[in-house]
Fold:
Amino acid sequence: MQNTGLKVLVHASAFFAPFLVPFIVFLITDDHEVKKLSIQALLFQVAMGILLFISSLLTVIIIGIPMLIVFGIMTVIVPILGIIRALNGDRFDYPIVGSWYQ
Structure:
């Protein structure tokens, strides 16, 4: 369970500084796994922001409402799952963007 604190911080930052903390952690750490996780967290937040924006535009034709609900829930649940995995010492890849950065 190396760098568990940094991993938890990166996941938890989704609730207080979703772009700043992963970027800073990426710059200060030497651990490849933590760097990968911070980039994934940052990309996940960007992707979810874009998806939520598109969903809000689509609320005009009603399809956006369920999309807003699903993407909103994902934005909250996925970091919580990451925190739990980090505390247990398990590996975690963010959905959608996990394979973008190896």
Observations:
- The radius of gyration is 14 Å.
- The helical segments are 4-12, 20-28, 32-58, 64-88.
- The longest helix spans residues 32-58.
- The mean pLDDT is 87.
